[in-house]
C-alpha cells in the first residue's frame, strides 16, 4: 500500500523575521515534497505562515498579538501562501505540475464527527488524484479558547486522521536538544526518543523566532499525540536537497520518536484527542495498572476522587495518585453516582445505584496516554 506521509512546515522555515514569504525556501520545499511523490508516497502538507506572510501587507510593523489582528493578517497571508505553493508546485510532476488544494480546519471541526469525516473524504479523494492537500488552521473563525494556536498539534491530529506512516515536523532547528540551542550552544541533540516523559518535556522551551509560536514544547506534545496513534514522528530540519527523503528514510537531521502502538480508530481518536473533557477521576494504583497494562475497564472500586459535573456519555480525564493524567475515557455514570459508590465492590455498587453498565469506563472507550 502507498504510504501516507504528513509533513508540517513552521512559519520560521517559510517566512522572514520581518514578515513576508521566503519564496526561495518555498520553491525548495516544493522540490523536496515532489521527491516524496517520485518515491511513491502520498503526501499531505500542514503549513503555517499565513499570519507571518500577511501582517506587513496589511500595515503592521511586526507580528500582531491581538486575535483580530492575527486573523486579519492570516486572511491576507493564507491567499499569498497558497499562491506561492501553487506556483512552486507547478514546476514539478507531469502535465502542468503537482496540483495543490487548500484545507482549512479548526479544533471544532475535529470534534464534530460529520465534519471531520467530510474532511477525511475530501483528503482521500485529493490523494487519489495525486493532488497535494495543504492544511492550515482556519484562523479567521477559530476562537481563542479553541485554537490549536500552533500547527504542530494540528499536524499530529491530521496524521492520526489519515493514518499516516510517519509525521515529519520541520523547523529551523535540527531536532530536540538538551536545552534550547539558541540559548546554550553547548546543548546536545537527542537522536531517538522512545517515551515522552515529563522530564523530556521540561527540556523544551518556547519559540526562538519572532514568527514561530509553539516552540519545541508544542512539537513534542504533537509527537506524543502521533505516537499514541501509532505514528512515528520526526522533528528536525530540511536544509539541503535530499534532506526530506533522508528524513523519511530514517537518516534525517533531527530527532526520531518511535512507537510500537497501533493506529487508533476514529472513535478512540475522538475520545483521546478531540473531545472536551467534563471532569477528572483520580484512581488508585491497582486501577492504574489495570487500565494501563491489563487492558481492563475502570470499576468503581479503584476510584479515589472525582472532580466536575459530568453525565453518562461525557469524556473525563483519569489521573493517578501522583496527579499525572494517564488517559481519557467515556463515563457510564453521572458524577453524583460515582460519589455514592467510589471504592465499593461491584456487588455493593449494584445494590446502591442503577446504571446501564457496571464499568465506570469501558476499555473500548478508553485511551491511555502512557505506555
Ligand atoms: N530543547 C530545545 N531543542 C531545540 N529547540 C528548542 C528547544 N527549546 C526551545 N527551542 C526553540 O524552538 C524553536 C522552534 O520552534 P518555533 O520557533 O515555534 O518554530 P516553527 O515556526 O518551525 O514552528 C527553535 O528555533 C528553538 O529556538
Ligand atoms: N495558522 C497560523 C500558524 C501559527 C504559527 O506560527 O505556527 P508555527 O509556525 O507552526 O509555530 C499561521 O498560518 O500563521
UniProtKB/TrEMBL annotation:
GO (cellular component) term, any one: cytosol
GO annotation, biological process: L-proline biosynthetic process
PUA domain ranges (all copies): 279-362
InterPro entries: AceGlu_kinase-like_sf, Asp/Glu/Uridylate_kinase, G5K_ProB, Glu/AcGlu_kinase, Glu_5kinase, Glu_5kinase/COase_Synthase, Glutamate_5-kinase_CS, PUA
Main location: cytoplasm
Residues engaged in binding substrate: 48, 139, 151
Keyword set, alphabetical order: Amino-acid biosynthesis, ATP-binding, Cytoplasm, Kinase, Nucleotide-binding, Proline biosynthesis, Transferase
Compartments in which it is found: Cytoplasm
Domain of life: Bacteria
EC number of this enzyme: 2.7.2.11
Positions that bind ATP: 8, 171-172, 213-219
GO molecular function: ATP binding; glutamate 5-kinase activity; RNA binding
Recorded coiled-coil stretches: none
Catalyzed reaction equations: L-glutamate + ATP = L-glutamyl 5-phosphate + ADP
EC supergroup of this enzyme: transferase
Pathway(s) where this gene product acts: Amino-acid biosynthesis; L-proline biosynthesis; L-glutamate 5-semialdehyde from L-glutamate: step 1/2
Family: Belongs to the glutamate 5-kinase family.
Xref: HAMAP family: ProB
Entries under PANTHER family matching the protein: GLUTAMATE 5-KINASE (PTHR43654), ISOPENTENYL PHOSPHATE KINASE (PTHR43654:SF1)
Function: Catalyzes the transfer of a phosphate group to glutamate to form L-glutamate 5-phosphate.
Protein name, per record: Glutamate 5-kinase
Gene: proB
